[in-house]
Design goal:
The chain is α+β, with helices and mostly antiparallel strands. It contains 37 helices and 20 strands. It has a six-stranded mixed beta sheet with strand order 3-5-6-7-4-8, sandwiched between helices.
């Protein structure tokens, strides 16, 4: 229900938003106050909720009038405390509630909003987050409703959504208004398996205290509704502590089900059970259900769906959000849906049969509602997460940081494969692909299933090509065709004729190159385009990585048969000169392909070297196999045999490091691999002698890196112009005024802007959506000694606590590393100011605009101090803290937003 928020003005009346909020269900502070209701509405609403319908705001209002009130699960107090504490924090905060399906997680979150509706401006995100900009606009509009004296922190409930993009969008919108918007995101995340952590967790088990409260509520409901309580499955399952025996008894009406000649009511019950078992909170429209019955003699008859669905009616709930919305139908509880699906399968009504019939009878209507289509597609293609497991291969890890990989396929497809057969899984996807003729992701999943599970590469190629035809500009869809050919080559029985190896490889390479081309053309989702080019928030590097993996397979397959291939693939000898040894003149038709390997691999390895060195995912880490497979491919084709010129000039160590350090990113990557001082010194000397003009930037980076390990090795900086981001970063590092210096000879502001433009041209498309790693920091000392590489700080912290090494989110994104006294002593503080959602460093009497690592610190203007770091995009402020202002008058003149105080109708 979308509504227009209004709050009592301090003087009189109410104020509304300028435009209706279509994506938010707003909970008013005075909701239902002064309203009268019919005598039937309260019991009807209450019975619907306890039977299994989702809660409405009226349910909480009714409970406030009841004897025992609304039952609060044990996580309630902790959730309220976290929300209230978050209001005290800067800018936008997130509170997470993890809950298992059917245990009351969404109800608990809504109860928190209900009880805090007078302290916050509360709303539930009901629309899609595909347009986060629109959501952000409505959040800001909600914040401003009622005028300045009614400003309150927005408390927004978001169900099963990633909040990072939404937070970024709200920050952007905040910068366009002359006041500071504050928001708490209550992220209600449904998980089949939840682990105890710092977040609030709700599971399918009751504490003794909860059992007592539910039993008391049961007695109260029995006094009011009597035997009708037996149909309150939504309440009873929780009250019975999720008892399998209760669920079994409730679902017993399904036990005599027969596979053949099933009545339509049995079929519809099977459809609802399957859909609700695999997509929690899904539903069908009542009109769909009625249409399913209206055939032949029933076509023009009026009937009650509840009567027609007997004896299954007590397991099904019909609900309506408001009078304007359609009535919806679903099973009373996920556990009931799961058990009904299992009982029908035991009776011979298999999951695959039900899925095919659902697609055939309910999904062919071209006017099928978008939400229902989404439920069905999610059931078939949405890959849930595997159970979380701590990463045991990378050393100590923070207790809350775990690796989460998706399952291979949607849970329904996996269950059909496990309980029936892989062919039945493929059959369901094939029917779905034909029903949803414009959808590319279903044939993509079918292609993946054919090549990974059924090993039918011809059919896999056919469905991958069909998926690509349906969405020809989507690089992620295009990836599947390359993967089909790559896996075909990898799984072909040995030994393989070299011509067949190269033939399959050429097909895969063609597909991967096309995917890479599409990926380069895909823009950020926020960018404007011609309406035809697909956009993606994440850059797709699978085509480049798939190429490297394929080349590794080609190398292993060919070299294992004849070691001469090693000489050919590394271009030490030509294919023509090796034909006699290889024994097959047909190979010459692949000469161009073979000649292209080394250069293409060098280019792609250079890409990944920069990609991994300069950035990382915002939440987890890049998988280890990316770095391992990339370096392995470089070693196979490039690193094993350097040129004769290089052999003459370089020592053994240099030849070994050459593959790591022929770019600036390579030097930093070398540091990540913990090269010692003598290694770096030899690298630096080698560059000076051989590549001084061509590789000046790498030379300077190596010199700076070396100075982190030694103060004795000195060298002059070659002044060679270069428009790369690396050049600008080094110019900033070397020319940034030291503490106490009056001014800088360069225009730092202009240099920073040039570096940003250079970054946009060189890396923005590839590193979008990723967190840019800090590479260097400004430390104490003079000259090069004050430039501190990030790894130095990590090692300082590691000396104190061995468990912090892999905790990237806490150390850098959350900035906990700067709490360590040893780190603080190594760095120098920079003074600055926050104004109008921007941060400025004060350098030589001038203000230089910088980025802030934590954007939430920009919500209030004030004098600040911080540590100065450098990413490949430019200087960044870390650990920003309030600095004592020169005087109170100056502080007040900076403020465009009132000081913190208890929130109420008078504002924050």
């Amino acid at each position: 229900m979308a509504s227009e928020p209004s709050w009592p003005d301090a003087q009189s009346g109410t104020l509304e938003t300028q435009h209706p909020l279509s994506l938010l269900d707003v909970l008013h502070a005075n909701q239902f106050e002064g309203q009268s209701f019919t005598s039937e509405l309260f019991p009807q609403t209450e019975k619907s909720f306890y039977s299994g319908a989702p809660p409405t705001w009226l349910n909480f209002h009714i409970s406030d009038q009841s004897e025992s009130g609304f039952i609060k699960r044990d996580g309630y107090a902790a959730l309220v405390e976290k929300v209230r504490d978050s209001r005290k924090k800067r800018g936008i905060s997130t509170v997470k509630l993890f809950h298992q399906p059917g245990c009351g997680g969404t109800t608990l979150a809504m109860k928190v909003l209900w009880d805090l509706r007078k302290e916050f401006k509360c709303a539930v995100l009901t629309g899609s987050t595909s347009n986060v900009t629109k959501v952000a606009e409505e959040v800001v509009q909600l914040f401003t409703a009622g005028g300045r004296r009614s400003y309150k922190t927005v408390l927004l409930l978001v169900n099963d959504q990633t909040v990072l993009d939404l937070k970024d969008a709200v920050r952007v919108k905040m910068q366009q208004v002359p006041f500071a918007t504050k928001m708490v995101l209550l992220s209600c995340v449904r998980k089949d398996e939840v682990q105890h952590s710092d977040n609030v967790v709700l599971q399918k088990v009751l504490s003794e205290h909860e059992k007592h409260n539910f039993n008391a509520k049961k007695e109260e409901l029995w006094k009011i509704y009597g035997e009708q309580c037996g149909r309150f499955h939504g309440f009873n399952i929780i009250q019975k502590d999720f008892s399998p025996a209760y669920v079994e008894e409730a679902c017993s009406v399904f036990k005599p089900t027969k596979r053949a000649n099933k009545p339509r009511k049995t079929q519809l019950a099977a459809f609802l059970s399957l859909l609700n078992a695999y997509v929690p909170d899904s539903f069908l429209l009542e009109s769909q259900c009625r249409d399913f019955f209206q055939h032949g003699a029933d076509r023009h008859q009026d009937f009650s769906l509840e009567d027609r669905m007997q004896p299954f009616s007590h397991l099904i709930v019909t609900f309506q959000r408001d009078e304007r919305s359609d009535k919806k139908v679903r099973m009373a509880h996920p556990l009931i849906a799961q058990r009904c699906t299992e009982l029908m399968a035991e009776s011979g009504v298999t999951r695959s049969d039900t899925a095919r019939n659902l697609l055939t009878y309910l999904c062919r209507d071209q006017f099928l509602p978008h939400l229902v289509v989404g439920f069905v597609k999610d059931m078939l293609t949405k890959r849930g997460p595997k159970p979380k497991q701590k990463n045991r291969t990378q050393g100590p890890i923070n207790a809350t940081q775990t690796q989460e990989d998706p399952e291979r396929y949607a849970r329904l497809i996996l269950d059909i494969q496990r309980m029936e057969s892989g062919k039945e899984s493929a059959s369901v996807l094939k029917v779905a692909s034909n029903v949803f003729a414009g959808d590319a992701f279903i044939p993509q999943a079918l292609a993946r299933f054919y090549y990974t599970e059924l090993k039918d590469y011809n059919l896999a190629e056919m469905w991958a090509s069909r998926a690509k035809q349906r969405d020809p500009r989507n690089s992620f869809v295009a990836d599947t065709l390359g993967q089909v050919h790559k896996n075909h080559l990898k799984n072909t029985q040995r030994p393989i004729d070299p011509c067949l190896v190269l033939q399959l490889a050429s097909k895969a390479i063609e597909a991967f190159k096309d995917e890479e081309r599409l990926a380069e053309n895909e823009c950020d989702a926020n960018a404007t385009g011609d309406g035809n080019t697909k956009v993606s928030h994440h850059f797709n590097n699978r085509g480049q990585f798939g190429y490297l993996q394929l080349c590794n397979d080609v190398f292993d397959l060919l070299v294992s048969q004849n070691d001469t291939w090693r000489e050919v693939l590394t271009k030490k000898v030509s294919l023509h000169s090796a034909l006699e040894s290889l024994g097959d003149k047909r190979l010459m038709r692949f000469n161009d392909l073979i000649s292209s390997f080394r250069d293409e691999i060098q280019r792609k390895c250079d890409f990944f070297n920069k990609y991994l060195t300069y950035s990382k995912p915002k939440l987890n880490d890049d998988p280890d196999y990316i770095s391992q497979d990339t370096s392995g491919c470089y070693k196979n084709f490039v690193g094993s045999y350097p040129s004769e010129y290089f052999k003459q000039k370089g020592a053994v160590l240099i030849r070994k490091l050459r593959k790591l350090v022929d770019t600036s990113a390579g030097v930093l990557s070398c540091l990540e691999r913990e090269c010692n001082e003598s290694d770096l010194k030899e690298v630096t000397t080698w560059w000076e002698q051989i590549f001084l003009q061509k590789e000046s930037i790498s030379y300077i980076v190596a010199l700076v890196a070396l100075r982190n390990n030694s103060s004795e090795f000195k060298q002059k900086m070659p002044a060679i112009p270069d428009n790369s981001p690396e050049h600008h970063m080094l110019a900033l590092l070397l020319c940034w005024p030291a503490d106490g210096e009056a001014r800088c000879l360069l225009d730092l502001g202009e240099l920073i802007q040039r570096m940003k433009r250079s970054f946009e041209n060189a890396y923005e498309n590839h590193l979008r959506s990723r967190y840019l790693r800090p590479l260097f920091f400004m430390g104490n000392g003079k000259g090069l000694d004050r430039i501190v590489y990030r790894k130095v700080l990590e090692n300082l912290l590691l000396e104190q606590n061995q468990e912090t090494e892999q905790d990237w989110n806490n150390n850098w994104i959350e900035e906990k590393i700067f709490r360590d006294p040893n780190v603080q002593a190594r760095l120098v503080k920079v003074e600055g100011v926050v104004r109008s959602y921007q941060l400025f460093a004060t350098v030589g009497g001038k203000e230089i605009e910088l980025e802030a690592n934590n954007q939430d610190i920009l919500w209030r203007p004030r004098q600040v101090s911080f540590y100065l770091g450098f990413t490949i995009r430019g200087p960044v402020a870390f650990a920003v803290h309030k600095a004592p202002p020169p005087n109170k008058a100056e502080e007040n003149s900076m403020m465009n937003f009132p000081e913190d105080k208890p929130e109420g109708v008078t504002g924050e």
